Amino acid sequence: MNNRESHPDAGNDREQRADARNNRELRADAGHNQESRAETRNDREMRADARRNREQVLRTAQRLFAAQGLGISLDEIARRAGVGPGTVHRHFPSKQALYLAVAIDQIRQLVAEGEALAGTGDPGALFTLLSRMMASGAENAAVKSALTAAEFDLRDAAPDAAADLTHQVARLLDRAHSAGVVRADVTVDEVMAIVAGAFAAIRHAGADTSRERSDHLTRIILDGLRPPSRR
Fold first, then answer.
1. How crowded is residue 211: how many other Cβ atoms within 10 Å of its Cβ?
2. Domain locations in the chain?
3. 10, 46, 205, 207: which could form a disulfide with 213 (CB 3.0–4.6 Å)?
4. Which residues form the HTH tetR-type domain (predicted)?
């Protein structure tokens, strides 16, 4: 007889131990997955907070640069934005980095406005967007002057944003052409070149007259783009 007789319950015991071990592993995996999901939620919330803080700093900086000039400190911008100085310095290690971010953010705002105008169906929406672009040029003249002095070209620094804005202008120009509210012979490249030239003129105007010059140039540009029968 074999001395190693098998107990009838031995197989069941092994199966129960294996099941218990599997259950422990499943619970451990479940706990790990819950922790991972919690960490993912926390990471998302932290990233969302960081984005909100960055946007708040950008909006505040844009407003203060337009109202008070470029002399305002990063710490004062942080105070006005309701964030700590470390938050500003973490996102924007220098004044120049903040200038560039403000200028790019303004382009993206104009892109969003162009998208909204494209959805209205208004054949004259091109003129609305161009007016807004000119107003933006006046509001951000000091920032753009600082970037120009530092030999920054926004088309090189933010090619996607610049291309998106050109695309929005092109869409609205096509609609204006179809409706006959703009000269038939004008192209989007010519429109963008005219606006760029106007921006240069605004930058050379004094802070006290930049908005006045912007308004005057806007009227000239819009009148020049309209066909003679609509002037």
1. 18
2. 12-78, 94-230
3. 205
4. 51-110
Three-class SS of residue 39? helix
Residue 122 half-sphere exposure toward CB, CA atoms < 13 A: 11
Fold for domain 94-230? Answer: Tetracycline Repressor; domain 2 (1.10.357)
Q: Where do we find the tokens 């066909």?
A: 227
Query: How much helix, strand and coil, in percent to the nearest 5, is found in the chain?
Result: 80, 0, 20
Question: Torsions phi, psi of 17, nearest 5?
Answer: -65, -40
pTM: 0.74
Separation of alpha carbons 113 and 106, rounded Å: 11
pLDDT tens for each residue of the chain, 231 residues long: 444 444 545 555 555 555 555 555 545 554 545 554 545 666 666 578 888 999 999 999 999 998 888 899 999 999 999 999 999 999 999 998 999 999 999 999 999 999 999 999 999 999 999 999 999 988 888 888 888 777 777 778 788 999 999 999 999 999 999 999 999 999 999 999 999 999 888 877 665 667 888 899 999 999 999 998 877
